[in-house]
Write a structure and sequence with these properties.
- By secondary structure, this protein is α/β, with parallel strands linked by helices.
- The chain has a domain at 95-254: Rossmann fold (3-Layer(aba) Sandwich).
- It is 52% helix and 12% strand.
- It has helices at 3-49, 67-79, 87-106, 129-134, 141-150, 157-169, 184-193, 214-227, 240-243, and strands at residues 114-119, 172-180, 201-205, 230-237, 251-254.
- Strands 3-2-1-4-5 form a five-stranded parallel sheet, sandwiched between helices.
- Helix 3 (87-106) packs parallel to helix 6 (157-169).
- The termini are far apart.
């Protein structure tokens, strides 16, 4: 085979080879486009099959329980008929803790010290639940003051137990309430009718203290008790403002009160 013939055959082979490679590349490109188009069509079909949402997503306020539902839960908690707890049992647990500490502390007195116990009154010593339910858990000053003046509030049983233990142990009892001085007679009558008798002092708000917060007013009252030479070993209340602020008791017991909040 001469050189010219060999060159022609080589050129022809190269052309065939390049043509075959082109066919292969076109096939690969075709497969890629078909695959991509299939995925796109599938996604488009999936989106087309999804129904439009019927409701807008909830906002943060939806997490807050409805007011009527909350009121029902308060009643169920008080009556011990829900999974949310039992008011009477919770009160008694805290009263038992107070009594245990009081007995321990009275058994280990310091020389010449006078032991004192401070009680709040509303929702600690006397229960206003009857009036709260009647008012649908809304505060109406005129209706509440009429209730106080009736002197009909029942005792909180656990607090009466603490009171009697304190009296047997010789611990002086102070009642410290945010009620105004004008309700002294009705409050004293109510306390005595429910078995609270023989306390050291009943402290009510003077007119000049009407604008003070509960925290400031009660802290100042405890300071006045301490200034009389008493050591406040125990303080029982249903609000943090009954217990916090200087001077604090050696041991403070907070009762549950989901019905209202006082600063």
């Amino acid at each position: 085979m001469d050189a010219m013939m060999f060159a022609r055959r080589s050129l022809a082979w190269m052309r065939v080879s390049m043509f075959q490679k082109g066919i292969i590349q076109l096939k690969k490109l075709g497969l890629f486009l078909a695959s991509t188009l299939g995925v796109a069509l599938a996604c488009s079909g999936a989106h087309a099959q999804q129904p439009a949402p019927r409701f807008a997503p909830p906002v943060s306020g939806e997490r807050i329980a409805n007011l009527d539902k909350l009121k029902d839960e308060l009643k169920q908690y008080h009556d011990c008929t829900c999974a949310c707890g039992c008011y009477a049992r919770d009160l008694n647990v805290q009263a038992d803790r107070a009594i245990a500490f009081l007995r321990h502390r009275a058994a280990h007195p310091q020389p010449q010290e006078k032991l004192a116990l401070v009680f709040d009154i509303d929702e600690t010593t006397l229960s206003n639940y009857q009036e709260m339910v009647k008012a649908d858990f809304a505060y109406n000053a005129k209706a509440f003051n009429a209730w106080v003046d009736s002197a009909a509030a029942p005792a909180v049983p656990g607090t009466l137990r603490i009171f009697r233990v304190a009296r047997r142990l010789g611990v002086s009892v102070f009642f410290l309430t945010g009620r105004p001085e004008s309700q002294r007679a009705a409050t004293e009558q109510n306390l005595r009718s429910q078995g609270f008798d023989g306390w050291q002092q009943l402290i009510l708000r003077a007119p000049a203290e009407a604008r003070a917060t509960a925290l400031a007013y009660k802290s100042a009252a405890r300071a006045a008790i301490a200034a009389q030479g008493y050591r406040i070993v125990l303080n029982v209340g249903d609000q943090w403002s009954d217990l916090r602020g200087k001077p604090e008791a050696e041991y403070s017991v907070k009762y549950p009160d989901p019905y209202y909040f006082i600063q």
